[in-house]
Sequence to fold (292 residues):
Amino acid sequence: MLYGALEAGGTKMVCAIGDETGKIYEQVSIPTTTPDETMPEIISYFRDKGIEAIGIACFGPIDLDRKSETYGFITSTPKTAWKKFNIVGYVEKALGIPVGFDTDVNGSLLGEITYGCAQGLTDAIYLTIGTGIGGGVMTNGKLLHGMMHPELGHVIIAKRSDDKGQCVCPYHDSCLEGLAAGPSIEKRWGRSAKELTDDAAVWELEADYIGTALVNYCMTLSPQKIILGGGVMHQMQLFPLIRRVFKEKMAGYINTKTLENLDEYIVPASLNDDQGIMGAIKLAIDAKTELL
Ligand code: ADP
Ligand code: ZN
Fold:
């Protein structure tokens, strides 16, 4: 059986066709401009592909409350053309097949849970550190939506006194995204994160902020694994530094067997940056199964 997957991002829309094993047969990328321009291109890609359902892992904030009148809408995004756009309704109407829908980061987490490094787990977190910071959460075997959906990038953490940079979040004086996402690194050090690989001070500070946030997530959500993805996490030297900060700041308060091996607890994404699109396949499978 074939399924469609749409990883809807603020800069590009990745469209793919796959099957229930997570195998991706083909994939294209369409620039995200305006709904009027971008959506017809997406639909014409998926039409006549013989897909049974489609999953959308979407940038947000989005409305995931099925009882809400605006379920399936992108809500208050700074990308104004997409504000209040009913992406689920549009795709459902155009293709006439079941549509699964969740956040981009819940999609990536679902990909890792279904096909990747978190298989068999019921509680896990996927954090992406790129242009922004966002996190997907699974608790007790279900993707967490709650009132809306978690916004792990905007947890408030203290700016370090020796940090000469600024929190670049327009909402918060001192939040994780504002202190540690790619644009913040670039602003603080005057060069793009990619060009700073050899500067130890950059990654020591970065790991301090990320490690602190992970302690907070561990305390509040009790995940069995934390997966870190996104452009910034391609700097693999961050992993041991983050684990060290995590251990120091945890200070032995939680000492489960799982936390004894932090190499297996705080891990890189495992699906070659296909975790989002593979998660969207699973959203499609689940949308189809729900109707059976
Ligand atoms: P997006 O978040 O827009 O989906 P990415 O996850 O690639 O895309 O994140 C882009 C951000 O990550 C940019 O700020 C960029 O500077 C940073 N980045 C991308 N690749 C790397 C890398 N190899 N090392 C460090 N930072 C990177
Ligand atoms: Zn913020």
Remarks:
- The mean pLDDT is 97.
- The radius of gyration is 19 Å.
- The pocket of zinc ion (ligand 2) is lined by residues 154, 169, 171-172, 175, 177-178 (CB under 6 Å).
- The first strand starts at residue 2 and ends at 8.
